[in-house]
Specification:
The chain is an alpha+beta fold and 435 residues long. Among the domains are: 115-281 and 345-421, Sandwich (Jelly Rolls); 290-341, no CATH class. The chain is built from 9 helices and 18 strands. The protein has helices at 3-12, 14-42, 153-159, 163-179, 211-215, 299-308, 315-322, 337-340, 407-413, and strands at 136-142, 191-192, 197-199, 203-208, 227-236, 241-250, 252-257, 260-264, 326-327, 330-331, 344-345, 349-351, 356-365, 370-379, 386-389, 392-395, 397-398, 420-421. A hairpin with a 2-residue loop joins strand 7 and strand 8 (260-264). It is elongated and about 185 Å long.
Length: 435
């Protein structure tokens, strides 16, 4: 629309336009007035209340009294007691700490055992009925019968009173056992006692041969002849050095250390029949174990007679020599056996301090009657108390021990202080497993 047209439009409608403007102005004033009134009405001042004090009558309250019965003091609840029947203790087993080659163990020399503490003493010369881990474990075999009680080849010889056949056969069995590396499977076809023994030393004076079956609890099943006991375990030396075993068995005593047979100290009648081992010591079978029994004997004279007869080399020479031995020109009437079956000297072997090695010991009785076993140990370079014998000056060696010998056990051993001492090293080592 052009400016000319706009100007003409307002001139033609000037009255109506003035009216409109007037209305707009009055409307604006009315809106402002209403707004002011509304604000004044809505926003009011907060009312203020003045409290008026009111006087209320006071009431005297009575103390409510309710009869209450005295109650007993609460008692602590009683604990229920469980009664447990205590069994009678026959034997007490105590697991002792490992003793690995410690001289004296729980106390050097005799007297280090448990008897002094009041525990039941169940030890005999073949060992205890229970072990603490430092003993040698012994198993008893009767070579006369099978596991079900039938006679073996040895048993048949014994039944027929064929002593020669029985001794030849048992020597063959023992030699096979030694050759197998002391493998117990060699005895699987023979009767085995179910009970084990745990020995810390093998020192037996001359005792009845039935002591072994009694100790293993089979005296009602085994006649006291042609039996063996295999002891095995582990040992450790208290000091590094060279050692050798010395001793004598009546009839069987063989010792294996590691994989090496170091001693065959069987009775002189079985020389070279239970093993092929021979001592390389010039003092082998020279010194008597019973130093008080041969004061009248001239050893050099006896040794000369033995050498002239061909030397001690098994049963043939034994029987041919034993009956002809003379002492001071006359036949020896006191029993010539001990004259020729003297202490056997073993081979030297090395042990390191605390190093654990396996050990096997076989003892046994062949014809029956009396049994004996004495096992000592010597360390090279150690000084021992000298003792005078009919064969010259020797020394009192300590018993081989894996734990100190209890005084009560020492009494059973009947130790002669001129032969053996219990004041010596201990070779105990905790058994890790039964081989």
């Amino acid at each position: 629309m052009s400016d000319e047209v706009k100007k003409r439009f307002f001139l033609n409608h000037k009255r109506s336009s003035a009216f409109v403007v007037s209305v707009l102005i009055h409307g604006a004033f009315a809106l402002i007035a209403l707004t002011f009134v509304a604000v004044k009405v809505i926003i009011k001042a907060d009312p203020t209340f003045d409290a008026v004090e009111v006087n209320r009558p006071k009431m005297n309250l009575r103390k409510l009294q309710v009869p209450v019965k005295d109650q007993k003091k609460t008692q602590a609840p009683k604990l229920r007691q469980n009664l447990v029947a205590k069994p009678r203790l026959k034997n007490v087993t105590i697991t002792m700490p490992d003793i690995v080659g410690v001289p004296g163990g729980m106390g050097a020399g005799p007297g280090g055992g448990l008897a002094g503490l009041g525990f039941a003493f169940d030890m005999d010369l073949f060992g205890s009925n229970r072990g603490s881990g430092n003993e040698l474990i012994g198993t008893f075999y009767d070579l006369k019968q099978t596991p079900d009680g039938k006679p073996t080849k040895i048993g048949e010889f014994v039944k027929n009173d064929d002593r020669g056949g029985a001794t030849t056969e048992i020597c063959s069995v023992i030699k096979g056992f030694v050759g197998s590396g002391f493998n117990d499977n060699r005895f699987k076809d023979y009767f085995k006692a179910p009970k084990l023994k745990y020995a810390t030393a093998l020192m037996m004076h001359s005792i009845p041969a039935d002591a072994a079956p009694k100790a293993f609890g089979v005296e009602d099943q085994v006649n006291p002849s042609y039996w063996v006991c295999h002891y095995k375990g582990q040992i450790a030396a208290p000091e590094s050095g060279k050692y050798r075993f010395c001793g004598l068995g009546d009839d069987v005593l063989l010792v294996r250390v590691g994989r090496r047979l170091v001693l065959d100290a069987c009775w002189v009648e079985w020389i070279k029949r239970t093993s092929n081992w021979i001592s390389d010591s010039d003092e082998d079978r020279k010194f008597p174990l019973d130093t008080d029994g041969f004061k009248d004997v001239n050893y050099n004279d006896v040794r000369t007679q033995i050498e002239d007869a061909g030397g001690l080399d098994g049963s043939r020479q034994y029987y041919s020599i034993i009956g002809d031995l003379k002492v001071n020109g006359q036949k020896y009437e006191g029993g010539a056996g001990p004259l020729v079956s003297r202490m056997v000297i073993g081979d030297w072997f090395d042990l390191k301090k605390g190093q654990i090695v396996d050990i096997d010991i076989l003892i046994g009785e062949i014809p029956g009657g009396a049994f004996g076993c004495r096992l000592m140990i010597e360390q090279e370079g150690k000084r021992y108390k000298p003792v005078v014998t009919d064969a010259g000056v020797f020394k009192i060696l300590p018993a081989f021990m894996t734990a100190p010998v209890d005084p009560k056990l020492a009494e059973q051993m009947k130790i002669n202080p001129r032969q053996v001492t219990l004041d010596g090293p201990v070779f105990g080592a905790k058994i890790n497993s039964q081989r």
